[in-house]
Amino acid sequence: MLMSTPDLQFVVLSDLHLNGQPERHAAVKKTLRTAAAQAPGAYLVVNGDLTDTGTPDQFAEYNAVIAASPFAGRTLATLGNHDVRGPRWPEWDNTPLADPRHFHTVAAPFYTDYLAGLASVDRQGLSVAMTVGPAAVILLNTDKGLKDSAEFSPATLQWLAGTLAHAAAQQRPALIFCHQPLRNTHWRSNFGGGVGLQDATLKTILRAYPNTVFISGHIHNGFGVTGVIDRPYGVAVDLPALAVSENGYQGQGSGFLLTLSADRLVWAAWDFTAVQRLPQFDFTVPLPTAAALVQAIPAPAVDWAALQEIWAVRFDQHLFDDPRTDGGTEEPPAPLYTNAQQIALTAVQQHLLAAWQKAGRPAAVPAVPPVLPPDQPASPVTLQGLAQTAQVLWEASVFTTASHLLLQFALARVNVMLSHPTEFSERDRQTARAHLVTALQNLRPKTE
User: Fold this and answer.
1) How far apart are CA 34 and CA 32, in angstroms?
2) Residue 200 belongs to some domain of the structure
3) Residue 140 shares a structural domain with residue 93
4) CATH of the domain at 42
5) Edge to edge, what strands does the sheet with 234-238 contain?
6) Residue 378 is assigned to a structural domain of this protein
7) What backbone phi and psi angles, to 5 degrees, belong to 369?
8) 309 and 221 in one domain?
9) In what residue span(s) does the Calcineurin-like phosphoesterase domain sit (predicted)?
10) Do residues 326 and 426 share a domain?
11) Most exposed: 49, 145, 339, 343, by fewest CB within 10 Å?
C-alpha cells in the first residue's frame, strides 16, 4: 500500500466525530477535497474518533466518506474512545476490567475489516506497524473499549518495545499515532486519565527508544493551544479536533499537512474547510530528536542542563486530574515554553546535531532494554460502604499516579451508578464494587 520515497506527505486529522448530521458530513468531505488539492499524492491519517458514538451506521458513513474521497486506498486510521465505547452511556467505564460488548461486536470487527486492506504491516491485536519512507509508522490502538482512556495488554506493550527496537536498529525515526495523549504533556492531557494506566510503562519504552514522535488527539484543543513538546522520551504532538476544537482557533476543518523527510517533520497548519493556510501555527520537529541525540552521543554539560530545564516544564493539570472539573475548555494562562526556552531548545538541538554528525551519526541504542512490569490482574472482591472512604483517599493525592488514577476511574464509575441507580443491573454494581475495592487495595504511596 505504501511506497518508500525520500519525502512523503500526510494529511493529518483527528476527531471527525461523524454522526449522520449533514453539516459535519459536508465539512469532512470538503476538508478531504481541499487537502487532496493541496497535496495530490499525500496519504491521509485520521487519529481516532472517526465517529461520535461508534454505531454501525456511523462507521458506514465514515467508510463511505473515505471511499468517495481522493484518499481511498491511501488512509491510515486509529480508533478513538468514541469509536470503541459504544452509544450507551451506562456501559462507559474506564476501569481495567471493563470489557463492553460493543467493542467486540462493532468496533473491533469494523477495524479488523479495515486492517485487511493494509499490505505489509506487522500486527498485534488492533495495533499495526509499517515502514513508510524513512520512518516506522505505528498505529497504536486500545485493546479494550474504555470510556476515555486506552488499555494496552502486556503483549501489545512488548510488541511496541520490539517494534521500536527494530526501528532504532535501522536508525529510523518512529511516528506513533495514538488517539489519547501521554499524561503531563499537553494542556488538558490528563483529561479522562490521558492515555490511561499504562502511561508510565509507555514512557519507559519510549525512553529506551526516544527517536520517536507520539502524535495524539482526543482533548479537542484548537490551534494555538495544541503544540509540540520535547521530553526525555521523544517528542509529543497534539492535534486539533476537526469537528469541535474547544479553545484556541475554532475552525471547522483544522488539520496538518505533514511533510516527512529523513531529518525533519514539517507540520503546516490548515483550516481545510475554509481553504485557509494558518502559518502562524506551523512547526518543525528536527530528527533525530534531542533525547535520541543525547542517547547517541555524550551531551556537553551546558546542553544537558538546558535540556533538563526544558524537559521539567509542565502545565498545571490539577483541573484535569479531577473528574469534577476536567470538562473545562479554558485556554492555558501562558504557553508551556517561554521564548527564551524555545530559543535554548533550538540551539541545543543544533549543537547536538552537529556533534552527532561529526561523530559519524552513531545509532541511539539504549544501555539496557526496557524492563516492563508483569501483568497484575485485579482480584474482584465486594464493596460495601467504601465509596466515601475512597473519595477521602482520592482527595489526599499522596499516591502514585497509576494507583491514584485507578482509584479515580473506579470511583467515577461507582458515582455514576449512585446517581442513576435504575440504569444499572445488580451485576453491574457488583462489578463496580469489585473494581473500587481492587483500586483501594492497590494504592501505593509516592516515593520522593
Assistant:
1) 5
2) yes
3) yes
4) 3.60.21.10
5) 122-124, 127-132, 135-139, 174-177, 212-216, 234-238, 228-231
6) no
7) -65, 155
8) yes
9) 9-221
10) no
11) 339
Residue with cell 461520535: 52
DSSP string, 132-160: ETTEEEEE---SS--SSS----HHHHHHH
- Judgement on whether residues 31 and 172 belong to the same structural domain of the protein: yes
Nearest to 224 by CA among 192, 191, 246, 244: 246
Q: Which domain holds residue 425?
A: 387-441
Count of domains observed in the chain: 2
Q: Is residue 371 part of a domain?
A: no
Residue 363 is assigned to a structural domain of this protein: no
Q: Do the Cβ atoms of 245 and 187 come closer than 8 Å?
A: no
Q: pLDDT (tens digit, 0 to 9) for every residue of the chain, 448 residues total?
A: 443 445 799 999 999 999 999 999 999 999 999 999 999 999 999 999 999 999 999 999 999 999 999 999 999 999 999 999 999 998 899 988 788 889 999 999 999 999 999 987 899 999 999 999 999 999 999 999 999 999 999 999 999 999 999 999 899 999 999 999 999 999 999 999 999 999 999 999 999 999 999 999 999 999 999 999 999 999 999 999 998 899 999 988 999 999 999 899 999 999 999 999 999 999 999 999 999 999 998 878 878 888 999 999 999 999 998 888 888 899 999 999 999 999 999 999 999 999 999 999 988 767 566 767 665 444 333 344 557 777 877 777 778 888 888 888 888 888 888 777 777 787 887 888 888 888 887 888 776 5
What is this structure's pTM?
0.86
**Same domain flag for 200 and 332:** yes
- Output DSSP code: residue 237: E
Q: How far apart are CA 28 and CA 16, in angstroms?
A: 7
Distance from C-alpha of 167 to C-alpha of 150, rounded to nearest angstrom: 24
Instruction: Report phi then psi at 211, rounded to 5.
Output: -80, 55
Are 86 and 40 members of one domain? yes
- Assess whether 326 and 227 both reside in one domain: yes
Distance CA 277, CA 290 (A): 29
